Amino acid sequence: MKRVKRDFLDLDALGVSLLRELLTNARALKGDRFLCSDALRGRTLVMVFEAPSTRTRVSFDIGMRSLGGDVVSLSAHDMQLYRGETPSDTARVLSLYADAILLRTDAPSRLRAMSEASRVSVINGLTRASHPCQVLADIMTFEERLGSIEGETLSYFGDGKNNVAATWLQAAGLFGLSLRIACPSSHSPDARLVSAARECGGDILVTDDPMEAARGSRAVMTDVWVSMDKDKGLEGSMTKPHNVLSPYRVDERVMEAASSDAIFMHCLPAHRGEEVTAGVIDGSRSAVWDEAENRLHAQKAVLLWCCGVDGLG
Ligand code: CP
Ligand code: NVA
Predict the structure, then answer these.
(1) Atom number of ligand 1 nearest to Cα 292
(2) With a threshold of 0.70, does the pTM exceed it?
């Protein structure tokens, strides 16, 4: 019987029970690095990067190999994609060779096109709209440090339209989180995402007051002020000290207002002195290196699921 294609595109489409299963598997894989070391023998992951990556590229690459599989990692610049071949045609061809495809791209529509045309699983390696692989690893990190995330209070500082923030809105609906987003009104999150999170049971506060957002949070999160999709030409003006996001920098005062056991999270890469002070990201409450490590374990769980391996035994 033909296996149903398993795409890892967005947290809200995956649902909480599958995410719970992936988190359990990621923890088991972290506990034993040789677990499932032969499970994906003969399988190949093709990764296509239309934007730069360190963590996503290397964690999926090493993760796939440590499960016995193989990897082809491509920069879109070296492909016919760069000369206008469509994502659909590209996916149709790649899925004749590979067992799963990962795409990092600016446009969610390009990811959707690949998913629709591919005969094999497609993984969202980041778009400007979402970054589900990152948030899966971040939930794992939160739970390692502080226990179950269900019903917890977390806060996000900076650009409310950021892809990681948008994915946390989805997670808020799924896990019943109280999520506070501190941002200027010019950078408010998409109202439809906020409504969807609320309708699913998330308690969402969008505020321009950093202290209101920080109060009582058990995780304080931020991300770069300028995401990859906006890199071109903007960075200079955005990084001036008094730009509109600088009141939302995570500093010692913000961490002081958070819960006494609060951790700091950032997907990386970080810009010290912009979205976060060096004292916070390099301080004792920072969980950023655990987040980076957990990308590997979470990605291994995603790969096993995408390739149809359900039990880890
Ligand atoms: N956090 C993250 O996705 O990092 P990369 O851009 O290096 O993959
Ligand atoms: N959210 C940032 C960093 C992601 C790793 C971006 O999209 O550039």
Answers:
(1) 1
(2) yes
Domains and CATH numbers, the chain: 11-130+295-306 (3.40.50.1370), 135-292 (3.40.50.1370)
Mean pLDDT, residues 146-163 taken together:
97
**In this structure, how many other beta carbons lie within 10 angstroms of the beta carbon of residue 155?**
29
Distance from the alpha carbon of residue 130 to the mean position of ligand 2, in angstroms: 9
Overall average pLDDT of the 253-257 stretch? 98
Give residue for tokens 């200027």: 184
Q: How many CA atoms lie within 13 A of 77 on its CB side?
A: 3
Choose which residue among 55, 281, 294 to substitute to test ligand 1 binding: the one with the highest number of ligand atoms within 8 A of its C-beta.
55
Exposed, middle or buried: residue 81 (CB in 10 Å: 0-12, 13-18, 19+)?
buried
Specify the pLDDT at position 111: 98
Q: How far is the CA of 211 from the centre of ligand 2 (A)?
A: 25
Nearest ligand, CA of residue 133?
A: 1
Q: Which of 36, 133, 267, 306 is catalytic?
A: 267
Please count the other Cβ atoms lying within 10 Å of the Cβ belonging to residue 311.
8
Measure Cα distances from 304 to 4, 29, 36, 77, 198 in Å.
Answer: 14, 11, 9, 29, 32
Answer yes or no: 134 catalytic: yes
**Per-residue pLDDT reduced to its tens digit, 24-69:** 999 999 999 999 999 999 999 999 999 999 999 999 999 999 999 9
217 touches 262 (CB < 8 A): yes
